[in-house]
């Protein structure tokens, strides 16, 4: 059956709509999980005068991206074969958005997943780095064990955020089963200029 919803969109689509509203042509953005590269390509088109930093620990993912992508359209993409928990070593500018598509790469090695410990480190560092008015978006997959632990720890982290600096929401697909991925969106107060 061909299924189409205009409002309750797929997570990836919903996120793209939000990013379109927030990101300017010269912004710096981070794709914390390159994976199949779809988000990186989308972001690259949103910031023709800016830059996309894309991380992946799997060299395979980076190589595949380079092979499959027209290099002319990804001039503004910096590919980083390292963990996003080291974000501050590679990204010196303040990003307007940082996105995480967690879990494992479909069609790839299912044992290589993002992990709670490193995800949390990256999220904390990323929130610190974000521009005022910037966004962090995470798609959290809870269908595997690491994902369940990630969800628990991310929800704890969100609860502990400084409310003067951050506001967050979760989007759950409540008509789907409990293992369906959900979205966390964290926005940094546009008036905030200090240290978190
Ligand atoms: N679950 C998503 C795709 C996630 S891809 C979906 O179904 O569409 C997640 C990517 O994150 C993988 O390519 C994996 O190699 C990468 N990854 C895992 N740990 C990482 C880390 N610490 N830093 C950067 N990338 C990481």
Write structural notes for this entry.
With 196 residues, the protein is α/β, with parallel strands linked by helices. It has six helices and seven strands; from the N terminus they run H-E-H-E-H-E-H-E-H-E-H-E-E. The chain is 33% helix and 19% strand. Helix 1 (11-22) runs parallel beside helix 2 (38-46) and helix 5 packs parallel to helix 6 (145-159). The chain binds S-adenosyl-L-homocysteine. The site of S-adenosyl-L-homocysteine has 19 residues, from loops.
Quick overview of this protein structure:
The chain has helices at residues 11-22, 38-46, 59-68, 87-90, 116-129, 145-159, and strands at 28-31, 51-55, 77-80, 97-101, 135-140, 166-171, 182-188. With 196 residues, it is an alpha/beta fold. The longest helix is centred in the last third of the chain and has 15 residues, at 145-159.
> DSSP helix count?
6
The largest pleated sheet is described as:
7 strands, mixed
As a percent range, the share of strand residues is 15-25%
- Tell me, briefly, the overall form: globular
Mean pLDDT, all residues:
95
What is the N-to-C order of secondary-structure elements (H for helix, E for strand)?
A: HEHEHEHEHEHEE
**If strands are numbered along the chain, what order do they take across the biggest sheet?**
3-2-1-4-5-7-6
Q: What is Rg?
A: 16 Å
Percent range for helical residues? 25-40%
- End-to-end Cα distance, whole Å, is 48 Å
């Amino acid at each position: 059956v061909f299924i189409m919803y205009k409002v309750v969109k797929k997570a990836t689509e919903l996120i793209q709509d939000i990013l379109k509203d927030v990101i300017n042509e010269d912004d710096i953005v981070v794709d914390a999980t390159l994976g199949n590269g779809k988000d990186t390509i989308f972001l690259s088109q949103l910031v023709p005068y800016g830059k996309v930093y894309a991380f992946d620990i799997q060299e395979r993912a980076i190589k595949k991206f380079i092979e499959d992508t027209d290099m002319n359209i990804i001039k503004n993409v910096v590919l980083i074969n390292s963990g996003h928990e080291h974000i501050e070593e590679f990204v010196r500018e303040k990003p307007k958005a940082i996105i995480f598509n967690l879990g494992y790469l479909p069609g790839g090695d299912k044992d290589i997943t993002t992990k709670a410990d490193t995800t949390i480190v990256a999220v904390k560092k990323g929130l610190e780095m974000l521009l005022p008015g910037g966004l962090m978006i995470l798609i959290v997959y809870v269908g595997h064990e690491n994902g369940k632990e990630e969800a628990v720890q991310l929800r704890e982290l969100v609860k502990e955020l400084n409310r003067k600096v951050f506001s967050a929401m979760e989007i759950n697909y409540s008509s789907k089963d409990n293992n369906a991925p959900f979205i966390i969106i964290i926005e940094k107060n546009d008036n905030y200029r200090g240290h978190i």
